[in-house]
Design a protein that fits this description.
mainly alpha
Length: 107
């Protein structure tokens, strides 16, 4: 009887994102995880030593390449959120009596 092993389901603080800092940390974490998954020459070497078929190894290599692209996109998202929001956060902290976004942008 063969035994199948499944990877654990991805987990993350998506339901715990309560502000911009936690959002940026989450996005950075996802980017890092994809970068780790996408960096797998040693993994591909292991598959070759186990004589996994070339077509299957190519699928893994393609998936790793997609993870590298995903890592770049997640990192770009983190950077964009940071650039667009952290200056506002800093200004709000310097001006505790400032009105909310609607009050500052309605007119």
């Amino acid at each position: 009887m063969s035994q199948t092993t499944t990877a654990p389901a991805p987990t993350g603080p998506a339901n715990e994102v309560t502000g911009i800092p936690t959002l940026v940390n989450y996005l950075d974490g996802v980017a890092e995880r994809h970068a780790q998954i996408g960096n797998g020459e040693a993994f591909l070497g292991s598959l070759k030593r186990m004589e996994v078929g070339a077509d299957d190894r190519q699928l893994v290599a393609d998936a790793q390449e997609a993870s590298q692209l995903a890592a770049a996109l997640w990192a770009a998202a983190a950077q964009a959120v940071k650039q667009h929001n952290m200056p506002l956060r800093e200004q709000y902290s310097l001006n505790p009596s400032a009105g909310n976004k609607a009050a500052n942008t309605n007119e």
